[in-house]
Amino acid sequence: MTDTVTTTDSGPKRLTTARLRGLFRERPIIPLIGLLAILVVVSELIRPGIVSLNWAGVMVRAAVPLAILAGCQTMTMLTGGIDLSVGAVASMSGFVVATLVGGPGLATGILVALAVAAIVGLISGIGVGIFRVHPLIMTLGMSLVVLGFANVWQIRMVQTGSGVPDQFRDLGAGIFLGFVPRSLLLFVPLAILIILGLNRTGYGRLLYAIGDNPIASRLSGARSWQVLIVLYVISAVLAGVAGFLYSGLTNVASVTLADTALLPSVAAAVIGGTSIMGGRGGYGGTMVGALILTVISSILSSLGYPEAVRQILFGALIIFVAAAYTRVTEP
Amino acid sequence: MTASTNGYLLEASDVSKRYGAVVALKSASLRVRPGEAHALMGANGAGKSTLVKVLTGAVRPDEGTITVRGKERMAHSPAEARRGGLVSVYQEPALIPDLDISSNLRLTETPLEPFRDWVRQLGLGKLDLSRMARDLPLATLRIIDLARALAIRPDVLMLDEITAALPANLTESVLEVVASQRGGEGSIIFISHRMTEIASVCDRATVLREGVTVGVVDISADSADRIVELMLGEAVGEMPERTERAAVASQADEVPRLEVRSLGSSGRLRDVSFDVRAGEVVGLVALEGQGQDELFDILAGSEHASTGEVLVDGRPVSFRHPADAIRAGIVFVPADRAEALLMQRSVRENIALPFSTPISRWGPIRKRNEKPKVDKAIDTLQIDTRAQKEVRLLSGGNQQKVTIARWVAGGVQTMLCFDPTRGIDIRTKHQVYLLLRDLAEAGAAILLYTSELSEIQLTCDRAIVIFGGEVVAEIDVSDADEATLLRAAHNLRSDAPLPEEVVAAAVAAEEEADDAGEELAHQESGEDPGPAEAGDL
Amino acid sequence: MSTTVDTADQSTARPIGALGSMIRRHGWTLGLVGILLVLLVVTRLIQPTYGAAGVQGLAVSVLPLAFAAVAQAIAVIARGIDLSVGSMMALTSVISAALMEERSEGFAVLVVIGVLLLGCVLGAVNGSLIVLTRVPDIVVTLAMLFVWAGCALLVLGTPGGGSAEWLRTLTGGSIVSAWIPRAALLLLVIVAAIWIPIRRSRLGLSLYAIGSDPLAAYRSGVSVTRTKIVAYTLTGLFSAFAGLTLTATTGIGTPVPGPYTLLSVAAVVLGGVSLAGGRGGVFGPIVAVVILSLLRTDMTFLNVNTNLATVAQGLILVGVVMVGSLLQLRKREP
C-alpha cells in the first residue's frame, strides 16, 4: 500500500507523449529508423533518382566497417568504458596484412594482425580489469603504443613494399547480386553474434550489470576483471577485422587509415542509444546510428558541402540525439 | 521577533510535486510554530524527503505555497533557502570530501566562533580544521554538518534522520541540543523513524501518507500508536508477536552451517567466534562501528581476515572474492540498496544476475531453467513488478525485496543480512521478518545484523553482541529484550552511564567504515541533483 | 553568515604540520618536478651541448600543449572532461591567424583580446550545453569537437594566415638570463595570474566542490550548474591561449586539430589530477607536459626511433596510472 506508485490520470495527450517516451526508451531503434527514413527521403528530394538499390548498397558498404568499430564502443560503453584504441588497432591490422601478404601470405597476415590486436586488447583489459585504470586512459595509452609500433613497422617495411590484398578489396568494396555489398557476408553473422551475445548470454548480462553497478555485480559474484579482459580482447579483435574492411574499402594501407573513424564510432554508438555511463543500450541502435552518419555524409557530399559542414552537423546531431535520450530516460 | 499573524513560523500549504507519472506529493501541508521541535513522519514513499527538498529549494513544487513568518517565500536553491533562514542537515553530510574542514566552512560562509562552540557542545571535543573531510568518519562529519547549520542560527533547521548510524553518545548530545533549541526563536523539523527519539524531543508531529498530510499529532505518552495509525492509514495492532516457530533442534553433535573461529582483522575484529546452525536466525547486535561491517565483509568474501578461520559445514574456507563465498553457499544482502541493485535493469534481470556470474555460465541463458526460479522468488516476496521496467522506479521497500529475492531464487543455504530493513516501511519490514523465519524453517542459516533492537525478538533465535571488535555476549532470544541488548551492546553490566572513552573508541573504530561509501559516490552521476533526488519514491 | 573565516592563523600555528600537509597535498607535483630535474641532468649527460638554447626550444615547443593541459585540468577538476580542447585550439588559432595576417601590430592586440573572449564564449557554450541537455560531459564535448573543428575549417580551408611579430617575440627567446625562456615565463605568469586568484576564491572552492561531490556542493549552497559553466569557460579561455600560442609559435593557423586533446588528457592524469574530479591542480599537468616532451628529446639524442618515443609516451601514461592505482589498491588493504 505504501509501496504502490500513484499514477496520474492522464488525458489523451499526456498518454501519447508518455507512450512515445516509453517507446523511445524501450525501443530506441524505432525512432532511429524513422530518422534514417527521413534522411533517405531528404536524399531523394535533393537529388531525385539518387535513391536506388545501388545507392543503398554503397551506403551499407561504407557503413559496415564503421558499424563494427561502433560495436566495439557499444560493448565497452555498456560496461561504463570506452575503447579509444580501435582506430589505431584497425589501422594497424589492415597495414600489417598489407605488408605481409606479399611475403608470408594472406592467412599468416590475418593471423598475425588479429593476434597483435588480441594482445593489445589483453593488455588494455588487464589494465582496466585488474589495475582499474580508467578505460579512457588505458585505451588512449595503448593507441599511442600501437601507433608508435606501427610506425616503426612501417619504416622497416618500406623496402619490401605493401599492397592491400585482393581478397580484402573484394570483401570490403565488392558487391554481389548486383548491389549487395560483399562485406555483409562477414557483417551479418557478426552482428547477429553480437546481438545474441548481448541479449541472450550470461556474458552479455554481465556486461550490462557491470556497467550499471560494479559493486552490485561484485556482490552477486561477478568477477569483473574476467569480464573486462575478455571484453577488451573482443573489442580489439573486432577492430582488427574492421581494419581489414577499411583497407579493402579504400584500397589504402596506412598506419593512420582508420584514425578518423574513431570518434564517429563513438558517435554512432551514442546516436544508437547506448549510454556512455554504462548499463543501457544495444547493438541494433548502433548499426542504425552508423548508417545515419554515413547517409548524412553522403547527402552533404552530394550537395557539395565542404567537410566542415559535415562535421558541424555530426556534432549537432550527437547532442540532439543524446539530449533526447536523456530526456526520455529520466524518471 | 514577532511571529506572523497566524502564529506560525513556517507554513507550507497544499504542496504538490509530480515526477512524470509518479506523484511524490499530492497535497502536503506543514505548519511549524516558533520554538517548537516538529516531527515529520511517514512511511517510505510518503513524501517526507520531497517535502524537505521543496522547503530547502532543492526541488521546485508544481503547486503550493510556502510562507516564512507570514511572507510568501519560495526558495529556488539550497543557497537561497539558507539565506532565507531554512537550513537542512541530511543523513549524508553535505561536506566536500576533497576539501578540508575550514574550506568547507568557507564554502558555506559559516562564522567560525559559533561553529566551534557548537562542535564543543555536540561533544566532538577538539577538531583539526585542516583535515580533509574524506579522512574523517561519517559520525564526525554529520556532527560538523550540524554544527555548521546551527552556527548560522537558522529560523528553521531541518534534520533528516540525523541520528541514524550515530554512536550512542553523539545521538544523545544531538538530541540534547535539539531539545535545548525548543522554546527559542528558531524551530526544528525533525525527521526520524525512531519513535522514542520523537517522543523525547518533539512537541508535535505531522504525518504524511502518499503525499498527503493526514494528521498533526501533539506528542504525548501514547501518541506513538496514533502516529503509526496515521502512517498506515488504518488501525493496526501492535507489532506482531514473535512468529511461532518450531523449536530449532540444535543438537550439540550437529555440525554448524557456519562456524567462525577466532576471527581477527587488523584491530577491527579480535578473536570473534560463533556458530550459525542450519534452521536458525542469529541476530548480531552492535553499536555503530564495532566491527560488524568488517565481520560481514569477511564472511561475504569482500575482505580478508588477518587471523582465524571460517568453516562452512565443518570445512575451512577462504574467500578471495564474493564469488567464492557464494559458491560456498554464503550470500550477502547489504544494507544499502544502491550497493545491491542494477538500477536501470528489470526486476527479473536483477534477480537472475547471480545465475550468470561464473564463467561456466557465460554462454546462452537457459531460460527454461531460470524463469521458474525467478518467478517463484518474485512470488515469495510479493514484489510488485507491474508497471516498472527498471528497478530504480520501484519504491524503496520493493527494491529491498529484490535484493533478497536475488538469493531466494537460487535457494538459500547461508544468508548474511546487514540491516535489511533500514529505511523501509513497516509493512515491508514484516514481510522481511516472515521471510527470514520461513527461510530458516526451510533449513537456511541466517545471520542478521540489525540496528533496530526490537527485531531481535521478532525474528531471531539468539543474539550475539559485539563490542569493540569482540563478542561480549550471547543472549537467548527469551532474554533479549531491548534493555538487555542495549546494555550488552554498550558492554555494560549495570545501568551505569556510558564511559566517555568507550564511545570515543566507537567513533575511532568507525574511521574506516565509510570508505566503502566513496566508491559509491563516484557512480552517482549527480550532475544536477534536482529530480535525481527523488530517491525514496 | 556574517563573517567569512580564514584559517590561515591555524596553519601558521603549527608550521611543521602545515609543511607536512603541503607536501602531502602537492606531493605529486613536487615529485614530478624532481623527475623533471633528474631528466634535465640526464639530458645534459647524454648530450653535453644541450643548454640554454635547448631549454628555450623545449619551452617554445611545449607552450601550446601546456596551455591545453591547464584547460583540460580545470574541466577535469570540476568532474568534467573536454574532448573539444584541440578543436577549440584549432578554431582560435585559425581565427587569430586569419585576422592577423598582414595587419598592423596594434590590430593584433585587439585580435588577441577578441580571440581570448571567443575562447570564453566557446567554453561557455560547451558548459551550457552540458548543463542544459544533461548529457554526459564526454558526449557533449565529443560533439562539440566536431562542431568547433568544422568551424575552424570554415574559417581557413588550409593552413595559412600569419602572426604578429610581437607575439612571436613574446614566445621566443629568453629574458634576463639565457636560461629563462620567455615562453616559460609567459606560461607561468598567465596561468598564475588567472588560476591562483580563482583557486583562492570561493569560486575555486566551488570548482573543487562540484568535482568532489556535486550533491554535497549543491547542498552547501553552490550552484552546480553555474560553476560547471564557469569551469568550461575557463577551459575555453585556456584553450584560446593554447590556440594563440600555436599561431604565435608556428606563424600560421592550422584548421585540423592536432593530437592536443588526447595528449592533454594524458598530461592531466600524469599531472596528478584525478579523473574522478576534485583533486589535483594545474601546475602538475604543466610539468607532466614538459617531462613528456623532454623524454622525446632525449630519445632523439639517443638515436632512438622517434616513433618509439610515441610508444614510450603511451607506456609511461599507462604505466604511471597503473602504478598509481596499484598503490591505491594496496592502501585499501593494509
Descriptive keywords:
heterotrimer, A: 331 residues, mainly alpha, ABC transporter involved in vitamin B12 uptake, BtuC, two-stranded antiparallel sheet, disordered N terminus, C: 334 residues, 14 helices
Structure description:
The complex is a heterotrimer of chains A (331), B (537) and C (334). Chain A is an all-alpha fold and 331 residues long. Chain A has one domain (31-43, 50-329): Orthogonal Bundle (ABC transporter involved in vitamin B12 uptake, BtuC), CATH 1.10.3470. Helices cover 74% and strands 1% of the residues of chain A. In chain A, a hairpin with a 3-residue loop joins strand 1 and strand 2 (180-181). In chain A, helix 4 packs across helix 11 (224-250) and helix 12 (262-271) packs across helix 13 (283-302). Chain A is globular. Chain B has 537 residues and is of the alpha/beta class. In chain B, helix 4 crosses helix 5 (138-151), helix 12 packs across helix 13 (396-410) and helix 13 (396-410) runs parallel beside helix 14 (426-441). With 334 residues, chain C is mainly α. Chain C is built from 14 helices and two strands; from the N terminus they run αααααααββααααααα. In chain C, strands 1-2 form a two-stranded antiparallel sheet. The radius of gyration of chain C is 20 Å and the shape is globular. Chain C starts with 7 loop residues before the first helix and ends with a helix.
Cα radius of gyration of chain C in angstroms: 20 Å
Strand order of the largest sheet of chain A: 1-2
Helix coverage percent of chain C: over 70%
Largest sheet of chain C: 2 strands, antiparallel
SSE string of chain C, helices as H and strands as E: HHHHHHHEEHHHHHHH
The first-to-last residue Cα distance of chain A is: 21 Å
**CATH class category of chain A:** Mainly Alpha
Report the average pLDDT across residues of chain A.
Answer: 88
What is the overall number of helices of chain C?
14
Element-level helix/strand string of chain A: HHHHHHHEEHHHHHHH
The number of helical segments of chain A is 14
- The number of domains of chain A is 1
Structural class of chain A: mainly alpha
- Biggest sheet architecture of chain A: 2 strands, antiparallel
* Shape annotation of chain A: globular
Name the largest protein-protein interface in this structure. A-B, 38 and 69 residues
Q: Which shape of chain C, going by the Cα principal axes? A: globular
Quote the CATH topology of chain A.
ABC transporter involved in vitamin B12 uptake, BtuC
